[in-house]
Specification:
Elements: H1 2-18, E1 52-57, E2 60-64, E3 70-76, E4 78-79, E5 87-91, E6 94-98, E7 104-110, E8 112-117, E9 120-125, E10 128-132, E11 138-144, E12 146-147, E13 155-159, E14 162-166, E15 172-178, E16 180-185, E17 188-193, E18 196-200, E19 206-212, E20 214-219, E21 222-227, E22 230-234, E23 240-246, E24 248-249, E25 257-261, E26 264-268, E27 274-280, E28 282-283, E29 291-295, E30 298-302, E31 308-314, E32 316-317, E33 325-329, E34 332-336, E35 342-348, E36 350-351, E37 358-363, E38 366-371, E39 376-382, E40 384-389
Antiparallel strand pairs: 1-2, 1-40, 2-3, 4-5, 5-6, 6-7, 8-9, 9-10, 10-11, 12-13, 13-14, 14-15, 16-17, 17-18, 18-19, 20-21, 21-22, 22-23, 24-25, 25-26, 26-27, 28-29, 29-30, 30-31, 32-33, 33-34, 34-35, 36-37, 37-38, 38-39
């Protein structure tokens, strides 16, 4: 009986102890809430995305498709738009190349990298420029202090302080000898030795001897050049077609070029005759039959006769493209047609031109995309974006 009493007392004490509350835990330091990435579906299906747009979420870059779904999840330190199905991306502090599935076709290994042009891409390895094939193999080993893209089988490269021209084997077609050598246009490239500019052919021979204080590319058989403080135009023989007489000048488009005289801009023909007298505070080149001009603080558009088709009324304006132009009213950007009517009302803090039917637009601090009807089809939720590209 005594044993049974002791067992009952033991069990009762255990039951009471089990019901006692535990001492409270010390409160930990609350964690700051992490910013959530925009919700998007990750398709990750190779070959299903024709056009993709570059987007940045917090510090990482990725790509979305036309529906705003992630085609490639944000994961890169830096990235660039696609070009011919290949994009440059930076991972682990090195640049490589991916396809549209997000798979590396050339592993990150370069200090710098550019798009493929004419079958080769220029890259930096060990602080020198060279050229790779799409397999990632060096076609021309890193050896140049600077380099430009290949164009029609040739590329401009710099050794030390002098520029020359190479072929796709890396052999010099023109030895480094120029202080500047620009891209070829209409078969000639502007080049500089000392302080004066002239024009050379693809063998490096001077077709027009250095004699100009500044020079621009040939376009439609003419190039604008500067002698002293005045601009004029020459033909491919180096002969002045329009003598230097303008304070500023632009290239010819639709047979007309903008030119500046007495601090005012007008438009001349290829004989140097004023078609539209100097009267504007600023002017752009003709594009799709219209040129943007500025009077005071407001911009409008004129036709080739100089007649206003759209009166000055915008705080800023850009050239027409595909029958629409981007304009700013106050601080907000929108789009107009050639009658000056708003296709998309000013409502964005910034806007890019349309590409593949989309325009990247910014509201406050975030970017999204609108279609050509002005409908926001991809919400403004990205920190930065690039245009849609292939």
């Amino acid at each position: 009986m005594k044993k049974i009493s002791l067992i009952l007392i033991f069990l009762l004490s255990c039951s009471v102890f089990a019901q006692r509350p535990l001492p409270p835990r010390k409160p930990g330091t609350p964690k700051a809430p992490r910013e959530k990435a925009p919700v998007a579906t990750n398709t990750q299906k190779a070959g299903t995305n024709d056009i993709l747009a570059l987007v940045r979420v917090m510090k990482s870059w990725g790509y979305i498709n036309e529906q705003g779904e992630y085609a490639i999840t944000p994961q890169f330190e830096n990235a660039k738009p696609f070009s011919r199905g290949i994009a440059r991306v930076k991972s682990m502090r090195a640049w490589g190349y991916i396809d549209k599935s997000g798979t590396f076709i050339i592993n990150p290994q370069f200090e710098r990298a550019e798009d493929f042009r004419d079958g080769l891409a220029r890259v930096v390895k060990f602080k020198k420029w060279g050229y790779i094939e799409e397999s990632g193999t060096f076609a021309i080993n890193p050896q140049f202090d600077d380099a430009e893209d290949f164009d029609k089988g040739f590329a401009r490269v710099r050794k030390g302080v002098r520029w020359g021209l190479i072929d796709k084997k890396g052999s010099y077609v023109v030895n480094p000898q120029f202080a500047n050598l620009e891209k070829f246009s209409d078969g000639l490239a502007r080049a500089r030795i000392g302080k004066e500019w002239g024009y050379v052919d693809k063998t490096g021979k001077w077709e027009i001897n250095p004699q100009f204080n500044d020079a621009e590319d040939f376009r439609d058989g003419l190039a604008r050049v500067k002698k002293g403080t005045q601009w004029g135009y020459i033909d491919k023989s180096g002969t002045y077609v329009i003598n230097p007489q303008f304070e500023g000048a632009g290239d010819f488009y639709d047979g007309l070029a903008r030119a500046k005289k007495m601090r005012q801009w007008g438009f001349i023909d290829k004989k140097g005759t004023w078609v539209v007298n100097p009267q504007f505070d600023d002017a752009g080149d003709f594009s799709e039959g219209l040129a943007r001009v500025k009077k005071g603080r407001e911009s409008g558009y004129v036709e080739t006769s100089g007649t206003y088709t759209i009166n000055p009324q915008f705080s800023d304006a850009e050239d027409f493209s595909d029958d629409m132009a981007k304009v700013r009213k106050g601080t907000q950007w929108g789009f107009i047609n050639k009658k000056g009517l708003y296709l998309i009302n000013p409502q964005f803090d910034h806007a890019n031109g349309f590409k593949y039917g989309f325009s990247a637009v910014k509201k406050a601090t975030k970017w999204g995309f609108i279609n050509e009807s002005g409908i926001l089809v991809i919400n403004c939720m990205f920190y930065d974006v690039g245009d849609f590209s292939k």
